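mind reviewing both lines:
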Amino acid sequence: MNGLLKHKDKNQLSEWIGRKCQFELLYKISRDGGTPQKFHELCDNKGPTVTMFYNVDKYVYGGYLSEMWESVGNWAIDQNAFLFKLYSAGKWNAKKFPYLSGSGDNYFRHSTYGPLFGSLWSIEKSELLRNSSGYFPLSTTNLFSGKGFNLAGDTAKSVSNGHNNVTDLEVYLLRDGPIEEEADTPWRDAPEWDLQEKITTYEPFEESDVPEANVLLIGQVGSGKSSILNTINSIFKGTISSRACTGSAETSLTKSFEKFQIRDPATKRFLKLRICDTRGVEEGLSIKNEDLAFILDGNLPNHYTFNPAEKASSKVHGFIKYPTLKERMHVVVFVIDGSTLDVLSEGITKKLKDIKANVVERDIPQLVFLTKMDKICPLVENDVSNMFLSEVVEDAVNKAADVIAIPRSHVLPVKNYEKETKLQTNINILALGALHQALMFADDFLENQFYLEGENATAKD
Protein backbone atom coordinates (compact mmCIF):
# COMPACT_ATOMS: atom_id res chain seq x y z
CA MET A 1 0.00 0.00 0.00
CA ASN A 2 1.40 3.38 -1.00
CA GLY A 3 1.88 6.39 1.24
CA LEU A 4 -0.02 9.61 0.59
CA LEU A 5 2.99 11.92 0.77
CA LYS A 6 3.54 13.66 -2.56
CA HIS A 7 6.80 14.55 -4.27
CA LYS A 8 6.12 18.25 -3.68
CA ASP A 9 5.56 17.57 0.03
CA LYS A 10 8.85 15.67 0.31
CA ASN A 11 10.75 18.52 -1.33
CA GLN A 12 9.29 21.02 1.13
CA LEU A 13 9.97 18.85 4.17
CA SER A 14 13.54 18.20 3.02
CA GLU A 15 14.08 21.93 2.65
CA TRP A 16 12.84 22.56 6.19
CA ILE A 17 14.94 19.71 7.61
CA GLY A 18 18.00 21.06 5.84
CA ARG A 19 19.05 18.03 3.81
CA LYS A 20 17.77 15.83 1.00
CA CYS A 21 15.81 12.91 2.40
CA GLN A 22 14.31 9.65 1.24
CA PHE A 23 10.98 8.75 2.86
CA GLU A 24 10.20 5.16 3.89
CA LEU A 25 6.65 4.48 5.09
CA LEU A 26 6.79 2.75 8.50
CA TYR A 27 3.27 3.07 9.89
CA LYS A 28 -0.12 3.80 8.36
CA ILE A 29 -3.16 3.80 10.65
CA SER A 30 -5.59 2.71 7.90
CA ARG A 31 -3.33 -0.27 7.15
CA ASP A 32 -1.77 -1.16 10.51
CA GLY A 33 -4.57 -0.25 12.92
CA GLY A 34 -4.89 2.41 15.60
CA THR A 35 -3.05 0.90 18.55
CA PRO A 36 -0.09 2.59 20.29
CA GLN A 37 1.56 -0.83 20.49
CA LYS A 38 1.57 -1.26 16.70
CA PHE A 39 2.94 2.24 16.19
CA HIS A 40 5.83 1.56 18.58
CA GLU A 41 6.46 -1.89 17.12
CA LEU A 42 6.95 -0.39 13.66
CA CYS A 43 8.55 2.95 14.53
CA ASP A 44 10.61 2.71 17.73
CA ASN A 45 14.40 3.05 17.56
CA LYS A 46 14.43 3.55 13.78
CA GLY A 47 15.69 7.12 13.41
CA PRO A 48 14.33 10.56 12.43
CA THR A 49 10.70 10.55 11.29
CA VAL A 50 7.96 12.69 9.83
CA THR A 51 4.40 12.11 11.06
CA MET A 52 1.62 13.11 8.65
CA PHE A 53 -2.03 13.85 9.49
CA TYR A 54 -4.63 13.95 6.67
CA ASN A 55 -7.89 15.28 8.02
CA VAL A 56 -11.39 14.99 6.57
CA ASP A 57 -11.48 18.66 5.50
CA LYS A 58 -8.33 18.22 3.40
CA TYR A 59 -6.03 19.92 5.89
CA VAL A 60 -2.61 18.24 5.91
CA TYR A 61 -0.22 18.85 8.80
CA GLY A 62 2.24 17.02 11.02
CA GLY A 63 5.48 16.94 12.92
CA TYR A 64 9.17 16.21 12.41
CA LEU A 65 11.27 14.46 15.07
CA SER A 66 15.05 14.31 14.67
CA GLU A 67 15.30 11.91 17.62
CA MET A 68 13.94 8.35 17.65
CA TRP A 69 10.53 7.32 18.95
CA GLU A 70 10.88 5.12 22.02
CA SER A 71 8.70 3.53 24.73
CA VAL A 72 10.66 4.66 27.81
CA GLY A 73 7.72 6.49 29.40
CA ASN A 74 8.69 10.15 29.66
CA TRP A 75 8.68 13.56 28.00
CA ALA A 76 11.81 14.77 26.22
CA ILE A 77 13.21 17.73 24.30
CA ASP A 78 14.14 17.73 20.62
CA GLN A 79 15.28 21.22 19.71
CA ASN A 80 15.38 20.28 16.01
CA ALA A 81 11.77 19.08 16.01
CA PHE A 82 9.10 21.18 14.35
CA LEU A 83 5.41 21.10 13.48
CA PHE A 84 4.11 22.18 10.09
CA LYS A 85 1.13 22.55 7.82
CA LEU A 86 1.17 21.78 4.09
CA TYR A 87 -2.43 22.11 2.86
CA SER A 88 -5.47 24.06 4.03
CA ALA A 89 -8.80 22.86 2.61
CA GLY A 90 -6.85 21.12 -0.16
CA LYS A 91 -4.80 24.19 -1.15
CA TRP A 92 -1.04 24.46 -0.75
CA ASN A 93 -0.33 26.56 2.35
CA ALA A 94 3.06 25.44 3.66
CA LYS A 95 4.39 26.80 6.94
CA LYS A 96 6.90 25.55 9.50
CA PHE A 97 6.44 25.88 13.27
CA PRO A 98 9.89 25.49 14.91
CA TYR A 99 10.75 24.52 18.49
CA LEU A 100 10.03 27.36 20.90
CA SER A 101 13.34 27.99 22.63
CA GLY A 102 13.19 27.59 26.41
CA SER A 103 9.71 26.02 26.38
CA GLY A 104 10.91 22.67 27.75
CA ASP A 105 9.74 19.21 26.71
CA ASN A 106 8.07 18.95 23.33
CA TYR A 107 7.47 15.24 22.61
CA PHE A 108 6.29 12.20 24.59
CA ARG A 109 7.76 8.69 24.26
CA HIS A 110 5.40 6.25 25.94
CA SER A 111 4.21 2.75 25.01
CA THR A 112 0.52 3.62 25.52
CA TYR A 113 0.52 6.68 23.24
CA GLY A 114 0.99 7.08 19.53
CA PRO A 115 3.20 9.85 18.06
CA LEU A 116 2.76 12.77 20.45
CA PHE A 117 4.20 16.27 20.15
CA GLY A 118 3.54 19.03 22.70
CA SER A 119 0.95 20.66 20.44
CA LEU A 120 -0.11 17.67 18.35
CA TRP A 121 -1.34 14.41 19.87
CA SER A 122 -2.70 11.34 18.10
CA ILE A 123 -3.59 7.96 19.69
CA GLU A 124 -4.15 7.74 23.46
CA LYS A 125 -3.88 4.52 25.50
CA SER A 126 -6.51 2.26 23.89
CA GLU A 127 -7.13 1.17 20.31
CA LEU A 128 -8.56 3.87 18.07
CA LEU A 129 -11.00 2.61 15.44
CA ARG A 130 -12.33 4.22 12.30
CA ASN A 131 -15.85 5.46 13.10
CA SER A 132 -19.03 5.07 11.05
CA SER A 133 -18.29 8.33 9.23
CA GLY A 134 -15.05 6.88 7.87
CA TYR A 135 -12.45 8.76 9.91
CA PHE A 136 -10.24 8.26 12.97
CA PRO A 137 -11.08 10.80 15.74
CA LEU A 138 -7.56 11.50 17.03
CA SER A 139 -6.84 13.36 20.25
CA THR A 140 -7.37 17.12 20.32
CA THR A 141 -5.46 17.63 23.58
CA ASN A 142 -3.30 20.80 23.25
CA LEU A 143 -4.12 20.84 19.52
CA PHE A 144 -1.82 23.53 18.07
CA SER A 145 -1.87 25.33 21.41
CA GLY A 146 1.74 26.48 21.10
CA LYS A 147 3.10 24.10 23.75
CA GLY A 148 6.74 23.52 22.76
CA PHE A 149 6.46 25.14 19.32
CA ASN A 150 6.27 28.67 17.93
CA LEU A 151 2.99 28.91 16.01
CA ALA A 152 3.53 32.60 15.20
CA GLY A 153 -0.19 33.43 15.33
CA ASP A 154 -1.56 30.20 13.85
CA THR A 155 -4.15 28.21 15.80
CA ALA A 156 -5.93 24.88 15.62
CA LYS A 157 -8.55 26.56 13.46
CA SER A 158 -6.06 27.84 10.87
CA VAL A 159 -3.93 24.67 10.81
CA SER A 160 -6.48 21.82 11.08
CA ASN A 161 -9.88 23.54 10.86
CA GLY A 162 -10.21 23.10 14.62
CA HIS A 163 -10.29 19.29 14.83
CA ASN A 164 -8.10 16.21 14.46
CA ASN A 165 -10.44 13.84 12.61
CA VAL A 166 -8.25 12.14 10.03
CA THR A 167 -8.75 9.75 7.15
CA ASP A 168 -5.17 8.62 7.65
CA LEU A 169 -2.06 9.01 9.79
CA GLU A 170 1.37 8.06 8.44
CA VAL A 171 4.88 7.89 9.90
CA TYR A 172 7.87 7.97 7.54
CA LEU A 173 11.46 7.10 8.35
CA LEU A 174 13.96 9.59 6.88
CA ARG A 175 17.19 8.47 5.23
CA ASP A 176 19.88 10.60 3.65
CA GLY A 177 19.79 10.61 -0.13
CA PRO A 178 18.15 12.29 -3.11
CA ILE A 179 14.38 12.33 -3.13
CA GLU A 180 13.08 9.56 -5.37
CA GLU A 181 11.58 10.73 -8.63
CA GLU A 182 7.93 9.81 -8.49
CA ALA A 183 4.57 10.88 -9.82
CA ASP A 184 1.93 12.27 -7.47
CA THR A 185 -0.58 9.90 -9.05
CA PRO A 186 0.10 6.45 -10.52
CA TRP A 187 1.05 6.54 -14.22
CA ARG A 188 -0.64 3.16 -14.62
CA ASP A 189 -3.23 1.25 -12.60
CA ALA A 190 -1.82 -1.63 -10.58
CA PRO A 191 -2.98 -5.19 -11.41
CA GLU A 192 -5.98 -6.66 -9.62
CA TRP A 193 -5.49 -8.50 -6.32
CA ASP A 194 -7.50 -11.65 -7.17
CA LEU A 195 -5.57 -12.86 -10.21
CA GLN A 196 -4.22 -16.03 -8.63
CA GLU A 197 -7.69 -17.58 -8.63
CA LYS A 198 -8.30 -16.45 -12.21
CA ILE A 199 -5.06 -18.07 -13.35
CA THR A 200 -5.80 -21.22 -11.35
CA THR A 201 -9.15 -21.60 -13.14
CA TYR A 202 -7.88 -20.41 -16.54
CA GLU A 203 -8.88 -22.45 -19.61
CA PRO A 204 -7.45 -21.67 -23.07
CA PHE A 205 -9.85 -20.41 -25.74
CA GLU A 206 -12.38 -23.25 -25.77
CA GLU A 207 -12.99 -23.64 -29.49
CA SER A 208 -9.25 -24.02 -30.19
CA ASP A 209 -9.17 -27.44 -28.49
CA VAL A 210 -5.75 -26.55 -27.05
CA PRO A 211 -5.11 -28.04 -23.58
CA GLU A 212 -2.52 -25.47 -22.44
CA ALA A 213 -1.38 -21.99 -23.39
CA ASN A 214 2.31 -21.90 -24.36
CA VAL A 215 4.11 -18.78 -23.07
CA LEU A 216 7.62 -18.43 -24.52
CA LEU A 217 10.19 -16.37 -22.58
CA ILE A 218 12.98 -14.76 -24.62
CA GLY A 219 15.57 -12.36 -23.29
CA GLN A 220 19.18 -11.39 -22.90
CA VAL A 221 21.49 -13.41 -20.66
CA GLY A 222 20.96 -12.36 -17.04
CA SER A 223 17.63 -10.64 -17.67
CA GLY A 224 15.76 -12.96 -15.31
CA LYS A 225 13.92 -15.33 -17.66
CA SER A 226 14.38 -18.35 -15.44
CA SER A 227 13.75 -16.24 -12.35
CA ILE A 228 10.31 -15.37 -13.72
CA LEU A 229 9.48 -19.07 -13.86
CA ASN A 230 10.75 -19.52 -10.30
CA THR A 231 8.75 -16.50 -9.12
CA ILE A 232 5.49 -17.82 -10.62
CA ASN A 233 6.15 -21.30 -9.26
CA SER A 234 6.91 -19.86 -5.81
CA ILE A 235 3.61 -17.99 -5.73
CA PHE A 236 1.54 -21.10 -6.42
CA LYS A 237 3.70 -23.31 -4.21
CA GLY A 238 3.37 -20.85 -1.35
CA THR A 239 7.10 -20.66 -0.61
CA ILE A 240 10.30 -19.62 -2.36
CA SER A 241 11.31 -22.29 -4.88
CA SER A 242 13.91 -22.81 -7.61
CA ARG A 243 12.65 -24.95 -10.48
CA ALA A 244 14.96 -23.39 -13.07
CA CYS A 245 18.69 -22.78 -12.79
CA THR A 246 19.46 -19.12 -12.04
CA GLY A 247 22.49 -17.04 -11.18
CA SER A 248 25.19 -14.91 -12.77
CA ALA A 249 27.16 -16.13 -15.75
CA GLU A 250 28.78 -14.72 -18.87
CA THR A 251 26.85 -17.15 -21.06
CA SER A 252 23.31 -18.47 -20.85
CA LEU A 253 22.62 -20.81 -17.93
CA THR A 254 19.67 -22.21 -19.88
CA LYS A 255 21.06 -24.78 -22.29
CA SER A 256 17.86 -26.47 -23.42
CA PHE A 257 14.29 -25.78 -24.46
CA GLU A 258 12.05 -26.47 -21.47
CA LYS A 259 8.25 -26.36 -21.24
CA PHE A 260 7.55 -26.03 -17.52
CA GLN A 261 4.24 -26.87 -15.90
CA ILE A 262 3.06 -25.14 -12.73
CA ARG A 263 1.19 -27.22 -10.16
CA ASP A 264 -1.44 -25.82 -7.84
CA PRO A 265 -0.99 -27.63 -4.48
CA ALA A 266 -4.55 -26.72 -3.42
CA THR A 267 -6.11 -28.73 -6.27
CA LYS A 268 -3.09 -30.97 -6.97
CA ARG A 269 -3.58 -30.17 -10.65
CA PHE A 270 -1.37 -28.47 -13.20
CA LEU A 271 -2.37 -25.05 -14.47
CA LYS A 272 -3.54 -24.88 -18.07
CA LEU A 273 -0.36 -23.19 -19.22
CA ARG A 274 3.28 -23.93 -19.89
CA ILE A 275 6.06 -21.42 -19.35
CA CYS A 276 8.67 -22.15 -22.01
CA ASP A 277 12.27 -21.20 -21.30
CA THR A 278 15.04 -21.15 -23.87
CA ARG A 279 18.64 -20.10 -24.38
CA GLY A 280 19.37 -16.46 -23.56
CA VAL A 281 20.18 -13.83 -26.16
CA GLU A 282 23.89 -12.98 -26.11
CA GLU A 283 26.70 -11.84 -28.33
CA GLY A 284 28.02 -14.61 -30.58
CA LEU A 285 26.45 -17.72 -29.01
CA SER A 286 22.86 -16.52 -29.08
CA ILE A 287 19.91 -18.67 -30.08
CA LYS A 288 19.88 -19.11 -33.84
CA ASN A 289 17.03 -17.84 -36.00
CA GLU A 290 16.44 -21.36 -37.34
CA ASP A 291 16.18 -22.76 -33.81
CA LEU A 292 13.77 -19.98 -32.86
CA ALA A 293 11.60 -20.64 -35.90
CA PHE A 294 11.36 -24.32 -34.94
CA ILE A 295 10.36 -23.35 -31.37
CA LEU A 296 7.72 -20.87 -32.50
CA ASP A 297 6.24 -23.38 -34.95
CA GLY A 298 6.21 -26.20 -32.41
CA ASN A 299 8.77 -28.48 -34.09
CA LEU A 300 11.30 -28.85 -31.27
CA PRO A 301 10.55 -31.38 -28.53
CA ASN A 302 10.59 -30.55 -24.86
CA HIS A 303 14.10 -30.79 -23.31
CA TYR A 304 15.85 -30.21 -26.66
CA THR A 305 19.47 -29.20 -25.93
CA PHE A 306 20.89 -26.40 -28.03
CA ASN A 307 24.15 -26.83 -29.88
CA PRO A 308 25.97 -23.47 -30.05
CA ALA A 309 27.96 -24.65 -33.08
CA GLU A 310 25.09 -26.15 -35.05
CA LYS A 311 21.51 -25.17 -35.79
CA ALA A 312 18.62 -27.54 -35.19
CA SER A 313 17.24 -29.65 -38.04
CA SER A 314 14.48 -32.13 -38.78
CA LYS A 315 16.95 -34.88 -37.83
CA VAL A 316 16.73 -33.91 -34.15
CA HIS A 317 15.49 -36.79 -31.99
CA GLY A 318 11.81 -36.23 -31.25
CA PHE A 319 11.45 -33.57 -33.98
CA ILE A 320 7.74 -32.85 -34.55
CA LYS A 321 7.35 -32.80 -38.31
CA TYR A 322 3.72 -31.77 -38.43
CA PRO A 323 3.02 -29.72 -35.30
CA THR A 324 -0.56 -28.80 -34.45
CA LEU A 325 -1.75 -25.62 -32.77
CA LYS A 326 -1.16 -27.08 -29.31
CA GLU A 327 2.61 -27.44 -29.97
CA ARG A 328 3.06 -23.91 -31.30
CA MET A 329 3.91 -20.87 -29.18
CA HIS A 330 0.82 -18.79 -28.41
CA VAL A 331 2.44 -15.66 -26.93
CA VAL A 332 6.04 -14.44 -26.73
CA VAL A 333 7.36 -12.53 -23.73
CA PHE A 334 10.57 -10.54 -24.15
CA VAL A 335 12.29 -10.42 -20.76
CA ILE A 336 14.39 -7.25 -20.56
CA ASP A 337 16.75 -6.20 -17.76
CA GLY A 338 15.59 -2.65 -17.06
CA SER A 339 18.90 -1.73 -15.45
CA THR A 340 20.78 -2.30 -18.74
CA LEU A 341 18.51 -0.43 -21.16
CA ASP A 342 20.97 2.43 -21.53
CA VAL A 343 23.91 0.13 -22.27
CA LEU A 344 22.38 -2.51 -24.52
CA SER A 345 24.89 -3.32 -27.25
CA GLU A 346 24.00 -2.91 -30.90
CA GLY A 347 24.42 -6.66 -31.33
CA ILE A 348 21.88 -7.53 -28.61
CA THR A 349 19.44 -4.87 -29.80
CA LYS A 350 19.64 -6.16 -33.37
CA LYS A 351 19.16 -9.74 -32.21
CA LEU A 352 16.06 -8.81 -30.25
CA LYS A 353 14.63 -7.00 -33.26
CA ASP A 354 15.40 -10.00 -35.50
CA ILE A 355 13.59 -12.26 -33.07
CA LYS A 356 10.63 -9.90 -33.02
CA ALA A 357 10.49 -9.98 -36.82
CA ASN A 358 10.25 -13.80 -36.66
CA VAL A 359 7.44 -13.50 -34.10
CA VAL A 360 5.52 -10.85 -36.05
CA GLU A 361 5.77 -12.93 -39.21
CA ARG A 362 3.72 -15.60 -37.43
CA ASP A 363 1.20 -13.10 -35.99
CA ILE A 364 2.11 -14.17 -32.44
CA PRO A 365 1.33 -11.47 -29.86
CA GLN A 366 4.20 -10.08 -27.81
CA LEU A 367 4.74 -8.59 -24.37
CA VAL A 368 7.75 -7.29 -22.47
CA PHE A 369 8.38 -8.21 -18.83
CA LEU A 370 10.73 -5.51 -17.54
CA THR A 371 12.84 -6.80 -14.64
CA LYS A 372 15.20 -5.37 -12.00
CA MET A 373 13.42 -2.04 -11.52
CA ASP A 374 14.58 -2.09 -7.91
CA LYS A 375 18.16 -1.81 -9.21
CA ILE A 376 17.50 1.60 -10.75
CA CYS A 377 14.83 3.09 -8.48
CA PRO A 378 15.31 3.43 -4.68
CA LEU A 379 11.58 4.10 -4.36
CA VAL A 380 10.82 0.61 -5.70
CA GLU A 381 13.70 -0.96 -3.79
CA ASN A 382 12.15 0.34 -0.56
CA ASP A 383 8.59 -0.66 -1.48
CA VAL A 384 7.61 -2.60 -4.62
CA SER A 385 4.07 -1.20 -4.38
CA ASN A 386 5.54 2.13 -5.57
CA MET A 387 6.24 0.64 -9.02
CA PHE A 388 3.61 2.74 -10.78
CA LEU A 389 4.45 5.92 -8.89
CA SER A 390 8.08 5.91 -10.03
CA GLU A 391 9.02 8.20 -12.88
CA VAL A 392 12.24 6.19 -13.25
CA VAL A 393 10.21 3.05 -13.93
CA GLU A 394 7.90 4.90 -16.32
CA ASP A 395 10.94 6.14 -18.25
CA ALA A 396 12.35 2.59 -18.40
CA VAL A 397 9.02 1.30 -19.73
CA ASN A 398 9.13 3.90 -22.48
CA LYS A 399 12.70 2.95 -23.41
CA ALA A 400 11.90 -0.76 -23.50
CA ALA A 401 8.89 -0.07 -25.71
CA ASP A 402 11.18 1.75 -28.15
CA VAL A 403 13.79 -1.03 -28.15
CA ILE A 404 11.28 -3.76 -28.97
CA ALA A 405 9.00 -1.44 -30.98
CA ILE A 406 5.95 -2.42 -28.98
CA PRO A 407 3.08 -0.41 -27.42
CA ARG A 408 3.92 0.94 -23.97
CA SER A 409 0.87 -0.77 -22.49
CA HIS A 410 2.47 -4.08 -23.49
CA VAL A 411 5.54 -3.43 -21.30
CA LEU A 412 4.95 -4.78 -17.79
CA PRO A 413 7.45 -4.05 -15.00
CA VAL A 414 7.88 -6.96 -12.59
CA LYS A 415 10.02 -7.89 -9.61
CA ASN A 416 11.46 -11.40 -9.38
CA TYR A 417 12.24 -13.17 -6.13
CA GLU A 418 16.02 -12.86 -5.79
CA LYS A 419 17.15 -11.79 -2.31
CA GLU A 420 13.84 -12.46 -0.57
CA THR A 421 13.34 -15.54 1.62
CA LYS A 422 9.57 -15.13 2.06
CA LEU A 423 6.75 -14.35 -0.35
CA GLN A 424 5.59 -10.75 -0.57
CA THR A 425 2.11 -9.73 -1.67
CA ASN A 426 3.18 -6.82 -3.85
CA ILE A 427 5.74 -8.91 -5.75
CA ASN A 428 3.06 -11.56 -6.29
CA ILE A 429 0.56 -9.03 -7.63
CA LEU A 430 2.97 -7.74 -10.28
CA ALA A 431 4.01 -11.23 -11.42
CA LEU A 432 0.45 -12.55 -11.55
CA GLY A 433 -0.72 -9.45 -13.40
CA ALA A 434 1.96 -9.94 -16.04
CA LEU A 435 1.21 -13.66 -16.41
CA HIS A 436 -2.53 -13.03 -16.67
CA GLN A 437 -1.94 -10.51 -19.45
CA ALA A 438 0.20 -13.05 -21.29
CA LEU A 439 -2.61 -15.61 -21.05
CA MET A 440 -5.13 -13.11 -22.40
CA PHE A 441 -2.83 -12.44 -25.37
CA ALA A 442 -2.43 -16.19 -25.90
CA ASP A 443 -6.22 -16.49 -26.04
CA ASP A 444 -6.32 -13.71 -28.65
CA PHE A 445 -3.88 -15.71 -30.78
CA LEU A 446 -5.82 -18.95 -30.35
CA GLU A 447 -9.07 -17.24 -31.27
CA ASN A 448 -7.51 -15.70 -34.38
CA GLN A 449 -6.12 -19.09 -35.43
CA PHE A 450 -9.49 -20.77 -34.89
CA TYR A 451 -11.26 -18.31 -37.18
CA LEU A 452 -8.41 -18.42 -39.71
CA GLU A 453 -8.61 -22.20 -39.91
CA GLY A 454 -12.38 -21.93 -40.38
CA GLU A 455 -11.96 -19.46 -43.21
CA ASN A 456 -9.36 -21.69 -44.90
CA ALA A 457 -11.64 -24.72 -44.60
CA THR A 458 -14.50 -22.76 -46.16
CA ALA A 459 -12.27 -21.59 -49.02
CA LYS A 460 -11.27 -25.19 -49.79
CA ASP A 461 -14.90 -26.24 -49.97
Notes: Residues 425-460 form the longest helix (36 residues). The chain has a mean pLDDT of 92. The first strand starts at residue 21 and ends at 28.
